[in-house]
Amino acid sequence: MHNYRKLQVWQRAMDFTARVYVETANFPKEEKFGLTSQLRRACASIPLNIADGSGNSSDKEFRRFLEIAIRSGYETSTAIEIAERLGFWKPALVDILQKELDEIIAMLFGLHKRFTT
Question: N or C: lower Cβ tally within 10 Å for the chain?
Answer without folding.
Answer: C
